[in-house]
Design brief:
This protein has 356 residues and is of the alpha/beta class. Helix content is 25%, strand content 28%. It has 9 helices and 15 strands. Strand 3 (84-89), helix 4 (92-105) and strand 4 form a beta-alpha-beta unit. The chain is elongated and about 70 Å long.
């Protein structure tokens, strides 16, 4: 079977963890960020994050999206030591450079998280807890068919209206005039923002990308969107479930070589796409398989592991692995569902109970 690889055997019996009290079905406890640590392990934190604990104080809170190497964030923090700053990035290299700069400059009022802006704004921040959101040189996604990937769309403005204080601001710097026009149109369509023309702080155009565009002779643009009417609707934060999504099956694991080689499965689940890429049999134990699964949502893509293994009772449990601290959205529950359906279709299992 081409889509089943053989992995090294686990040091423990295949069913030991699942049959232990609580076992691997228990959801890991949420832990608030430690005061004094610049790096925020956001997946392990309660939502919304208690930023007063993360900073060890209560202070006006600002968000910066896409901080690059951190020079602008650090400069702002040094100039306003009585205010706190949270920076977001999806680039590991940028995060590492920013953390090095924070340590080098001995800045205590900056926290950094590796997460996309849409997810962070919804999950990590309490209603009306932000003074400002700075977006410096976002990816313009210039092709019309890629507009849905742009950050400053109506859904972002709507979410920001529930997270910013009254009079709070979204501050945009961009070298892309079409993106600027697009963002203005989206803000006007939302109807809660006043568009302000303002001279940008000098440091805005001294960031890594700003200097690059200036060297190329590109004009740079700056726009402020001030929230005039905060939202009364507050989208709910995700809550950690008591147990990981799982199901119980009956049946026998077949010989992997008897299964089809093109057994990839794609499921639509909770407005997302769930893709089962392959199963992997653990050597030394025929009755334990791992499945690599991708869950692709509008604002978040997660690579997950789902395990199917026989228990002492004889039944088979299918569950989401805790490895990587998966964010358990409604769509992530579909990862277990997709593997269950894969096993029913290709391995002849029957479903006894679904818990996802």
């Amino acid at each position: 079977m081409a889509d089943v690889a053989r992995l090294p055997a686990s040091g423990a019996p295949a069913d030991a963890a699942a049959d232990a009290p609580g076992g691997d079905l228990a959801t890991p406890p949420r832990v608030a960020p430690e005061p004094g640590r610049a790096w925020v392990a956001w997946r392990r934190a309660p939502f919304p994050v208690d930023w007063s604990k993360a900073f060890g104080r209560s202070a006006p809170l600002h968000l910066e999206v896409g901080f690059g190497d951190g020079r602008f964030t650090v400069r702002r923090a040094l100039e306003a030591p009585h205010e706190d700053y949270v920076g977001l990035e999806v680039s590991t290299v940028s995060v590492q450079r920013a953390l090095a700069r924070i340590r080098r400059e001995r800045v205590g009022n900056v926290r950094v998280a590796k997460v996309g802006a849409a997810v962070a704004l919804r999950q990590l921040f309490a209603p009306h807890g932000l003074q400002s959101i700075t977006v410096n040189f976002p990816d313009p996604w210039p092709k019309e068919r890629h507009e849905r990937h742009r950050l400053l769309r109506r859904p972002f403005f709507a979410m920001a209206a529930s997270r910013l204080v009254a009079g709070g601001e979204i501050r945009l710097a961009t070298d892309h005039p079409e993106y600027l026009a697009f963002a203005r149109d989206e803000a006007r369509a939302d109807g809660r923002y006043e568009l302000l023309e303002r001279v940008p702080p000098t440091a805005v155009f001294e960031t890594k990308y700003a200097l690059k565009w200036r060297e190329q002779g590109k004009p740079l643009h700056y726009q402020v969107f001030r929230l005039e009417r905060p939202s009364d609707t507050h989208p709910a934060h995700l809550e950690a479930p008591a147990t990981m999504p799982h199901a119980f099956l009956t049946g026998t694991f077949p010989d992997p070589d008897q299964l089809p080689s093109d057994a990839k499965r794609v499921e639509a689940y909770a407005d997302a796409h769930v893709i089962v890429h392959e199963g992997a049999q653990v050597l030394g134990g025929r009755d334990r398989w791992l499945f690599r699964v991708t869950v692709d949502e509008t604002e978040l893509t997660q690579q997950l592991l789902v395990v199917a293994q026989r228990r002492e009772s004889g039944e088979v449990i299918v569950r989401l692995e805790r490895f990587g601290d998966p964010l358990i959205t409604p769509a992530v529950r579909g990862a277990v569902h997709a593997v269950v359906e894969w096993l029913v279709e290709h391995a002849g299992f029957a479903v006894r109970e679904r818990n996802y």
